Amino acid sequence: MTTPAKLYGKDLSEYEEIDVDELLNKLSAEEINILAKEVDPDDSFLPPSQRCSYDCEKDPTGPLNRKQLIEHINKQAIETPDKPELKPYIPGTVRGKKWIPPPQPVKEQEANEQIAIDLGDEYEQALSSATQDEIIDLAAILGFHSMMNQDQYHASLLNKGQPLGLGWDGITKATKQKIFPMEPPNPSDPDETIQKVEDDEPKYIDLNWNNIKNVSHDKFDKLFKALEKNTHLETLSLANTGLTDREAEKLAELLEKNDTIRVVNVETNLITPSGIVRLIKSLLKLKSVEEFRASNQRSQVLGNKIEMEITQLIEKNPTLLRLGLHLEYNDARHRIATHLQRNIDTKRRLARLAVTSS
């Protein structure tokens, strides 16, 4: 049962059947004007002039003259008398209660004050003869981070020697940015690699198409078709090649037929969450892939439903050892990490049994 609406403690249910338009038609123009000033129409599409309750009935005196308006305002401000003071101002006298600042807190001991600590003759002699750099190294070892800056601390830990010009009062300057050379473009030729895959060369076990731009759909189709009969390729790297769900479906069909591929990398592509689920589901057919990477796709967030579906598929896979995928929810991350660790332990145990039996 719903609670009836009330306004100022009065029940409004008796006014629900009243026709508002009929009431407005009975009002005069003056009454409508008064009502319009009392009610603010909460409509952002109305101009402010129609929403404002102020209504000036004076006729306009002419166009706006900004300079004349400012001069009039200044003149009116000068001619307006000041408010009379209850107590006239007299130089040197205090009117009213004088403000007294609160007492300052007791200052801490000066930094140069010495604290008497008996360290023994051996330690006192060693510290008195130590240089400033040695004292800084000792402070870094003891973990006194507030006594030094970051450059001094890291130099002490790495035993590189203290930077020149930096003492206890030294200022840390910005570290110069290290310039690394640009990564060279991928020298792999798609047509040549496709031919090697079709020929099933025994030494060709790693296919790397990473960062190759503008790979056509036909080349992907030829590659996946050739991989269906290949028995030597173990690593398939297709990161940042513009893969979409169309190619992901072809790749999933390939993984359900090829049992020699161990590593699949499709990071930084345009695969949707449903496409990633399709790829992970295809790993359950032959259970030969040990490492699968598919992070940094167009859709950064997979969502709870997709992550739980991926988690259930991973928990059914007994051979997957490493997974490169960004998961948002802790439950999915924890369950997948636990299952992958269980797979790694199982593989180690089987390898150990194989060695002992041989």
TrEMBL record:
It holds the Pfam family Tropomodulin. It is found in: Cytoplasm, Cytoskeleton. Its main location: cytoplasm. One of its GO terms (cellular component) is cytoskeleton. It comes from the Eukaryota. Gene3D superfamilies: Ribonuclease Inhibitor. Keywords: Cytoplasm, Cytoskeleton. PANTHER family: TROPOMODULIN (PTHR10901), TROPOMODULIN, ISOFORM N (PTHR10901:SF6). This is Tropomodulin. The lineage of its organism: Eukaryota, Metazoa, Ecdysozoa, Arthropoda, Hexapoda.
